[in-house]
Give the backbone structure.
Amino acid sequence: MTDLWFYLNRLRGFAGIRLYTQLAAMIAVGLFDGVGIYLLAPLLGLLGFFGGSSGSIPLAAGWLDALRSLNVAAALPVLLGVYVLVMAIQALLQKEQSIRGAQLQQGFIRHLRLRIYEGLMRSNWLFFVRRRRSDFHHVLTSELARVSQATYLLMQLASSLAFTVIQIAFAFWLSAKLTAFVLISGAAIALAMRRRIRRAKAVGNQTSLLSQSYYAGLTDHLGGIKEIKSNRLEAFYLDWFRSLTGRMEANFTAFSRLQAVTECLYRIAAAALIALFVYLSYEVFRVAPGQLMLIVIIFARLWPRFTAVQSNAEQIYSAIPAIRSLRQLERECEAARESADDEGTGIPRAMPVKQGIECSGVFFRYGEDEQSEYALKDINARIPAGKMTAIIGKSGAGKSTLVDILMGLLEPVRGTVLIDGVPLGEDTRNLLRHSVGYVAQDPFLFHASIRENLQAVRPDAREEELWEALRFSASDDFVRRLPEGLDTIVGDRGVRLSGGERQRLVLARAMLRRPSILVLDEATSALDNENEARIQEAIDRLKGTMTIIVIAHRLSTIRNADQVLVLERGEVVREEDQQLAK
Ligand SMILES: Nc1ncnc2c1ncn2[C@@H]1O[C@H](COP(=O)(O)OP(=O)(O)OP(=O)(O)O)[C@@H](O)[C@H]1O
């Protein structure tokens, strides 16, 4: 329930006065609807339905007498005209309320979407390292759709409740005793149905878990489709998919069954109650036939409202787990939020390195608990500014982790990183990243043109600057040969390009940023000797103008380094000054 209240409060905070006008509009629609029904009394009276018994219908008596003083031929069109007018106003109001309701709902969902996306974008790298990406997709798509539906249902529920209250008021006017009887019956049934609402929540929990597995599986399997195809694992994954979608089907059917049974119970109860009601009215309360007729009309309109309230409540309860997922993700993003780095000016500050980066007693581990193993242990090393430092070591030795620490992406668990002798803190860690150009092991290109990919890091870069960066990364020739040149769209994650071509484009992008620290994480591993040699030469020419850190396996890459750090199981086991060694 706290999750629901939290979201109601959030909705109130977002919509402000609009929420209250919306509720007022709902009440007005309900009122007009009630008046419409109430007009039926004089109408029916005019048509002679009540015989001489109109005096027993509260309020109607005065109307009827006034109308009777006119002749029927004149009164009927007046009455019908008023009826049409009232219903038309109600219809117009309802239309306006529906449009505004949809605007409110969509606005609120966009507000939630933006909050979560912004929360993710502002979260630190460790947050992403520790979580499955598919869980974010799941929350931002499937869970958000359920919350959107719940928001719509909440408004519907408010509208149903407003309608119901107004109808009850009208019904009370007509007959307090019989309305009380209907209400007590409704309350008794709602009480008996409480367990069904709890069941709806349990089914909703299951829906969240299943759709989370679905998203995780799809992301994994499609990401690894080449492995699946080349190892003939299709049947295994098909079995998994069949089984999971079977459970999803059962889950959705269970919820539909729950709702259908509830509706069926309400319908049977309605029939039984109407029968009892007519019997009691006639035999016990001796209600006049005209009034009885009206009460039946009111009852017939009131009861579906009870059913709607119950059904809405079941659906809203089934969406509570989705609301909880959203809230949980927001909380986690908040806890992992990085500090802003523009000091409120809107212009991010960079942090150039003049002397060097130093690690002093740096420890790091990925696991959250104290027992988990360190990926880096007591690292003491210095990366001189303007020089090229190579980090080498076996797979899993901690090279990428060390680079992430040096770039300010990860924070040491113990120890300090110093930039020009000044310890890197929470605020300065982000600033350092403005000075970094990074090329990853598995380079990433957006599904856009080469130009857009390059300009993503510097929107104001001129055409010559783009070509200069491409020349640097030895990619100018192949880009020129592409059918659309710079405007060629590179496929999903750049798959339409070869690994080496992607690496070269990402290197061009990194250079375009004019970084003061260039980090290459095995960035030339996919290149042929000729292209690697061209890039090595270009990088060599950069020495003295920027600090270069490379993770490398090939001797050819290390050869030009000024310093080599050798890592083994998270420790620096050797630090060689190449210049001295030469
Ligand atoms: N996201 C992660 N969660 C948990 N442990 C991790 C994570 N990333 C890396 N590790 C662990 O940290 C250690 C160092 O990994 P790291 O990726 O830094 O090694 P590496 O030297 O760069 O390896 P490679 O050359 O294979 O890329 C390894 O034992 C690895 O299992």
User: Anything to note?
Assistant: Residues 234-284 form the longest helix (51 residues). The two ends are 71 Å apart (CA to CA).
